[in-house]
C-alpha cells in the first residue's frame, strides 16, 4: 500500500465556540494526494490545513471537472468518535469518478487515511448536542490547460468542518418549492454523480425559491417535469396512506446513503416502503384525498428533515399541520441514535475511530 506522510501543524487553531453554523470552520489538518499519468495516485499526506497552489488555468476552474462527498464524524456517548458507513461514501465517490473521467482510487487506502485524519483532529469533533464534524472529500482536475478535455492531473483532498444543523430551523419542518421552470439533471446526464456542476445548475432555482421564503426546491424530472426526483441536498420520502414512497434511482437522482439507510430502517419496522416513480399529480391527488400524511428529506447534512409545506404552482400543500410527524420523528431518533451511539447499531453501520 501507498505510504501516508504525516506533517502536524505547529500552530493549532482556537476551536470555535457557540453556534457553529454549517461548513464555516475548518480543522487543523487536511488530507492531500496527487494524480499524474506517470505515478497514478501518489504523494498521499496529512498536512496542516491551508491554501493549495493551482494554476489559474487549472481545468476544474474552467470546466468543472470535480467530484465530492459529504460524511460526518460523531461524538459517541462514551466520548469516542465514530463514522457512519464511510465505505459507502468512498464507493460512491468512485462511481462519480467514473462518470466524470477521474481516475479511481483505492477505497481501502482512503478509508485508512480518513480514519487517521479524524484521529489526529479528534478534538475538533463537537460535543454539543446535534453537532458533528462534517467531512468533505473532493477531487479536482488540476492540469493547466484551456482545451476542453479530461484533465491529466488531479488532486484529492479531504477537509473537515465542525458543524451544527444544515437548516437553521433544526428539526422544525422546512418549506419546499416544487420547481417547474428549471431542471437539475436529466437521464444520461450527471445527476447520479456528486459533482460540482449539479449544484451550480441548481442555484438559480434555489435563489428564486429563497426569495419566496422556501428553503430548497423539489426537482421534477428533466424531460416531462412530471416525476418527483429529489431536493437540493437531500432525497425525499412521502407517506401516502399506508405506503411510504421514495423516488426510484433513475440515473438523475443521487443515490443517498441516508436514503438507503432509511429504507432499511423502515423495512426493519415492517413498513411498506416502495422505491418507485411518483408523479407530482399523484402527490397532489394524495394530498387532496387527505393521504399525504408526512413528507421528509434525508441527507448527511440535513439528517431527517420534515417537510411542512410544498408549493406547486398556486397550490400550497400543508403537511401534517406543519409539524414533524411520528414516522419522521421516529426515524430521526433511530438514525441519530445509531450515528451518535446512543442506541444499538443492529445494522453494523458504525465505524469507531480509536
Ligand atoms: N441528493 C443530493 C443532491 C445531495 O447533495 C445529497 C447530499 O449528499 C443527498 C441527496 C443525500 O445523500 P446522502 O444521504 O448520501 O448524504
Ligand atoms: C451532504 O449532505 O453531504 C451534502 O452534500 C449536501 C451539501 C450540498 C451540503
UniProtKB/TrEMBL annotation:
Reply yes or no: does the keyword Amino-acid biosynthesis apply.
Answer: yes
List the PANTHER family.
BRANCHED-CHAIN-AMINO-ACID AMINOTRANSFERASE, SUBGROUP IIII AMINOTRANSFERASE
Query: Which key words are in the record?
Result: Amino-acid biosynthesis, Aminotransferase, Branched-chain amino acid biosynthesis, Pyridoxal phosphate, Transferase
Q: Which cofactor does it need?
A: pyridoxal 5'-phosphate
Does the record bear rRNA-binding in its keywords? no
> What protein family is recorded?
Belongs to the class-IV pyridoxal-phosphate-dependent aminotransferase family.
Q: Which reaction does it catalyse?
A: L-valine + 2-oxoglutarate = 3-methyl-2-oxobutanoate + L-glutamate; L-isoleucine + 2-oxoglutarate = (S)-3-methyl-2-oxopentanoate + L-glutamate; L-leucine + 2-oxoglutarate = 4-methyl-2-oxopentanoate + L-glutamate
> Entry's InterPro entries?
Aminotrans_IV, Aminotrans_IV_CS, Aminotransferase-like, B_amino_transII, BCAT-like_C, BCAT-like_N, BCAT_family
Q: Could you tell me what this protein is called?
A: Branched-chain-amino-acid aminotransferase
As recorded in UniProt, its EC number(s) are 2.6.1.42
- Top-level taxon in the UniProt lineage: Bacteria
| Annotated metabolic or biological route of this protein | Amino-acid biosynthesis; L-isoleucine biosynthesis; L-isoleucine from 2-oxobutanoate: step 4/4; Amino-acid biosynthesis; L-valine biosynthesis; L-valine from pyruvate: step 4/4; Amino-acid biosynthesis; L-leucine biosynthesis; L-leucine from 3-methyl-2-oxobutanoate: step 4/4
Q: Name one GO molecular function term.
A: branched-chain-amino-acid transaminase activity
- Name the lineage: Bacteria, Bacillati, Bacillota, Clostridia, Eubacteriales
Q: What class of enzyme is it?
A: transferase
